[in-house]
Task: structure prediction
Amino acid sequence: MKEIVIISGKGGTGKTSITATLAVLAGKNAVIADCDVDAADMHLLLKPVVEKSENFFSGVIAKIDKDKCINCGICAGVCRFKAVPIVNGKYIINTLNCEGCGYCEKVCPVNAINMHEQDVGDWYISKTRIGNTLVHAKLGIAAENSGKLVAKVKNESKKIAERENKKYIIIDGSPGIGCPVVSSLSGANYVVLVTEPSLSGLHDLKRVHELVKKFNLKAGCIINKSDINLNVTNKIIQFLKDESIKHIASLPYDENFTKAMTVGETIVEYDHSELKDLLVECWEIVKQEVN
Amino acid sequence: MKIAFTTKGIEWNSDMDPRFGRTEYILVYDDEKEEFTSFDNRDIENEAHGAGPKTSQQLFEMSPQVLITGNGPGGNAATVLEKAGIKIFIGAGQMTVNEAYQAYKNNNLKEF
Amino acid sequence: MKIAIASGKGGTGKTTLSTNLAALFAEKVQVVLADLDVEEPNSGLFIKGDIEREDIKYKMIPEWNESTCTLCGLCQKNCNFHAVIQLGSQILVFPELCHSCYACSELCPTDSLPMIKQRMGQLKQFRNKNMTFIESRLDIGQEQAVPLIGQTIEYIEKNFSSSTLKIFDSPPGTSCPVIEATKDADFVILVTEPTPFGLHDLTLAVETMKELEKRHGVVINRHGIGNNDVLEYCEENNIPVLAKIPNSRKVAELYSKGELVYTEIPEFKAELEKIETFILNFQKS
Result:
């Protein structure tokens, strides 16, 4: 079983559309994991039917037991996050501001404060319209993605892949370079970097590749919208050469990507031309590389 | 010498866990006494952030000289392990513990 | 007057809108453009100016004082973020994991973990005629955007009068950094695309704005591609649509080169002027 993670430092490069396309091409050989929990859009293309859903708890926030509280205000005095405001003469916790450090809990003289696990959203196991399993999650408002949630989604998909003897786990990775993307990459067999030839695209590609390098992972790159700016595309290709990253493909700027998404399809189902062939070839290359 | 492994079980034929911070078990083999000690690290699932430093601290308590793992630790964990003077060998993520041990003995693993 | 420009997901054209709108305003009035996407500030690629100021920004972290420490282990226990670890006879601090809560420091029985300043990023201020451009950038390896966003907004509050028009280019998403960047704004413009992804991420952003009780409106980018679902959603929920920026490959090309768009494409400028009018009317009311 091989884990393939698709990431892109920057938003809007077409990462999710490409991941969903690979998911369709891999078909029943793969379990799909959507670890881009902040903008979990893959379900819009794969139209899953939820089979199992569970709450997800992550991090802690403070809670004041009103019966025990003597309103001394020591908690508010030590809090650095303005999370213990006084409302109608009583100290309360502002849950949006609370960082979960637990300092207030430690200094409360009457033990009126306890840290509670926070319900940050739900995670699901679903069957997609093409018959493979998708593990995904939905965060509540202001809830932050974490290494923990990504690890959960990945672990569940791994369990299923092992149980059902699947060849691949295809993971839509988290954005940025923080804890969630570290967790997305951890344990991967192959990384597909999706980028676009803009100044910010190249910059973000370099940043995220630093992480990939640190973990010693084998990687390839798909340059999307490559004909938008040939100058930057050439710079990206040079970067790939210098870093021994496989240049999987250069895809053209093509509105069929958006049109396919609009009707809820992936590009290989919607488009029967050159673009489809290119993506089929991408998947063949990824398979070769990973095996 | 004590050699630590990140694993999914506590036997020679258990699979390695390629992850460091969120590994399920830490298994330490003492090749002089020829015995194992292990730590069940599965509670790490409950940590939102900072899994790496926490696991490295646990590893430190078990005082191995060498760590064998898959991808290698993240930045924070690497700092702890360096301070603790533990040598790290990577690339054993897809092996069993026994295979990883043999690969290490035959110098087939890469030093982190 | 503070206008925040945000979006549920990255790559919808937030930076394109912020930079072009600020430049258009600057043709007539004083404007402050702040790039609060401190993890990936990109506005600077489009705005050229003379540097006026460079400030290092700090966060507070504990520093171990070996000579007074009794290795009691309380600091490690008091840190909920595993940012303080006791390793045998030494204490290690991980600055990126530290949330600056002061618990380890103030609860240390021997005061062996005094809080010290640690660099987390840099604020730069540029000037180009009427426009002041402020960019904060988090250092590589720093993970917490919120404190730097907060300090940047504080800096702007202190240095510019409340009547100056300020445009905040916010980070993407719906989590803490966006909330920090939008919570003091008078109005929030949500940028989206007329596609299923765009609609899905817009609904999340709208829910967040409702939670914060923020007045908000929508700008549809790449209008003409996709479908009408976003428009219908806005109509049903009484969310004003301020502008519909036409879909054009040329916008993407100009963006890729780091160039402003409105000076080259009249249709784009016409839509920007609608947003300008809306903001001016909003300011009057």
Remarks:
- The mean pLDDT of chain B is 92.
- The two ends of chain B are 19 Å apart (CA to CA).
